[in-house]
Amino acid sequence: MPNPNDAARAAYEYKLMQKALDAKMPILGVCAGMQRLNVLCGGTLHQHIPDMLQHGEHMQIENYNIAPFIPVEPIQIHEGTALSSIADEIKSIFARGHVPNPPGVVEENSMHHQAVDKVGNGLKVSATAIDKLPGDIPLIEAVEADPAGPYANQFLIGVQWHPEFSASPLGAKLAQHVAAAATQFAQQTGREHTWEDVQHENIISSLPYIKLPTPDDSTMQAQVGSKVAQILATRIDYERTHALR
Question: Check: CATH 3.40.50.720 for 4-191+213-241?
Fold first, then answer.
């Protein structure tokens, strides 16, 4: 049965996001925030990608107890996008140890079971996963304002991963850019918000916490550890053998 709290939060966030779009405020949509942005712009979602991919590796916490600050998914950032311009400011994100990533690939966390299907009006794809959906369809990992659309002059980026956990240095860079855009917007529009206002909004719109499963059974722990190693080995092998263009 659907959780009424989830429905209430979704309704609240849709209204909040619509007001932000109308006001041309800077927006950084994270995970479900990216999905809500896409739906609000007339797009659609894949409802359960584990069934489509035949694996649950994009749900790293729920399925495998992998902490959110551990990167598990190589993301291909598309050239010529606003996201690419931000990522290019930190060249080090394109390498991990002695195994260099292909050009434009950054490794991030992955904690979702839905994903963008049809891209909403005024948006464009700016990053995809190495996983492909049936029919060789790219799994969308980021969207942003289409420079030819109605949000061309607005900071508008949605990412499927959670940059706040700093699984890669790109998270901090995204935070810097949205903060700078927000500061500029406030100066241009004469807006000023107190710390109490911001904290109140955070309390209303945030989930209470993220629970990490902690199974006591040592056999289960060993299985989880083995799965983590398997996922990472698969990703490393893929990176070594594919150009990811």
Answer: no
